[in-house]
Amino acid sequence: MKIKFLLGILLIAPIFGRGQFESIPTLDSLVLSSFEEGKIHKVWLALGNDGFGQPIQVPVLIAKGNDTGKVLGLTAAIHGNELNGIAIIHRVFSSLDVTQMKGTIIAIPGLNPLAIANQQREFVDQQDLNRLFPGKEKGNRSQQMAFQIGEKIIPFFDYHIDLHTASFGRENTLYGRGDMQDDTLSGMLRILEPDIIVSNKGEASFGEASGLTLRAFAMKKGIKSITMEYGNPQVFQKEMIDRGVIGIVNVLKWLDFTKGETKMPPAKNVCSKSYWIFTKKGGYLEVHVTLNQKVEKGEHIGTLRNPFGEVIEKYFSPEPGIVIGKSTNPVSISGGRILHLGILENLP
């Protein structure tokens, strides 16, 4: 872990270092009234210090319209190997005509810079930032990072879209999570046109949590927040990025940040809940279903073999549902993920 921490410090300098960005200021806090209207602003925001006493900096893009209005927040890569959202934010901002825009868009294309530099999911102490909010001002490394995000960034938002992907060894559909009983959140999700929507109020879909997800934390502050999952880790996927850009541009129209009309598409494949199915033993796993596939109760979804090719176990769907994500790594110890099953509402 110490080696990874040092690598993070050494690698982050060329990736996010000051040399090539000397004209971009580093701020300790954001004061929106200090940014000129009708322009896009680029700043670094300091969220604590690294091992050399230098700021841990996140890039911040601020598009400030000519008319006062609401604030939309876009956050990407709170998990450092989930990169499609970074490219989505870049392309959304390149498409903006800020002189014709109402309100403000604040985007952070890289919320976990040390993990991005290390090409890993977790923060430098191997903790998941997205399970730690609100964090602690005097806590451990991850708790302080979550606290800084929660204090310096999230309170500005009226609306929020948190951009994710699957993690290593897995792949995802394009799916969204949010409370479909809330008209605003339901509208945002529908306009983004995911393949699947999991309706919930911000609970973590899996993993141990000592705190809240970023979305749940934002919602407790009265922010209209949703999560979008765009495909696979550690890659830029053109189809996912294209769909993400189109969706967010349409959300900006629907929320009246930009001009133009957008149609409200019907919600597809709304799930009342979702969960992962796990192996009971270890071996080589073959998953037999595809993303977005609807499965029946008892349908054969996976086979586990030993090193000699003999079948150890077969796995079957415990109930009808739809495949949201699945394992892509054949090497599976006991308790390994097989697939992420969504339970559809209004089954025939």
TrEMBL record:
UniProt KW keywords: Hydrolase, Metal-binding, Zinc
GO molecular function term, any single one: hydrolase activity, acting on carbon-nitrogen (but not peptide) bonds, in linear amides
Cofactor(s) the protein needs: Zn(2+)
Entry superkingdom: Bacteria
Keyword S-adenosyl-L-methionine in annotation: no
Ranges where the Succinylglutamate desuccinylase/Aspartoacylase catalytic domain occurs: 70-253
Family matches, as InterPro entries: AstE_AspA_cat, N-alpha-Ac-DABA-like, N-alpha-Ac-DABA_deacetylase
Signal sequence bounds: none
Protein name (database record): Succinylglutamate desuccinylase/aspartoacylase family protein
Organism: Flagellimonas alvinocaridis
